[in-house]
Structures are given as C-alpha cells and as structure tokens.
Design goal:
single chain, about 130 residues, mainly alpha, two-stranded antiparallel sheet, 4 strands, flat
C-alpha cells in the first residue's frame, strides 16, 4: 500500500513510493546533481575545491556534500575537494568521519561492552 507523505523540502503532499521527495523536488535535486557531476567530470575542473564547485554551479555546498555522503559523487579523483566531518566539522576528503572521530567511536564501542559485562557480574574495575 502506498503512503501519503509531506515532502521534506517543500511540504507538498505526495505519494511516497521509492523516493522521499515529491517529483518536483526530486527533479530539482537531480538537476543540481547533474550540474555538479558535469562540472567535475571535466578534467580541467578536477583541481577545484568544494567552494569553487559551488560558485561555478550555483549548487549549495550542503547539497554537494549530501551527494558525496550518499555516495553519488566520488571525491577520490578530486585532490582539493574537502568537506566537513559529521561529528567535529574537521575538513576531510573521504568518508563521513575524520580519523580521530572514527577512533573515538571505535574506542567507545570497544569499552562499552566491557562495562556492561562488569555491571552484570556486580564487579567494578578501575583501570589506571
């Protein structure tokens, strides 16, 4: 059964099928993606920064970053293309998190199960 939703961009009511946007907003977003993709496909534009791509295409930096995070734009061949880590806003050029945030999450995940196990046993340990 199809579901009625409000478009998160414009608020218009639409039948949610495969997309989370109404057709109008989806087409606008696809047009923005095509502008960015066409621009960075050109060899002479591969040295561009995120800001330069935004200025040249008119597509907001947040939308370009969204395309990167969705995996729609690959930045491996764009050496000067940096965007913000989702946690600390440090500039990165791959993935969603910088190395220090990845390590912080990994450390927390590794220590958390130990804490839960110790709570179950009724023991507490203090590490120096």
């Amino acid at each position: 059964m199809k579901e009625l939703k409000n478009c998160p961009n414009c608020g218009n009511l639409f039948v949610k099928h495969l997309r989370v946007l109404c057709d109008t907003c989806y087409k606008k977003e696809e047009a923005m993606f095509e502008k960015v993709a066409s621009y960075i496909r050109k060899k002479e534009n591969r040295q561009a920064t995120l800001h330069e791509v935004q200025e040249s295409t008119g597509v907001p930096e947040a939308k370009i970053t969204s395309f990167i995070r969705q995996g729609r734009i690959q930045v491996a061949h764009l050496p000067h293309f940096y965007y913000e880590c989702e946690m600390c806003e440090q500039l990165i050029n791959e993935g969603r998190l910088c190395q220090s945030c990845k390590m912080e999450i990994r450390t927390e995940l590794e220590t958390r199960p130990m804490e839960k196990n110790h709570e179950k046993l009724g023991k507490s340990y203090h590490l120096k």
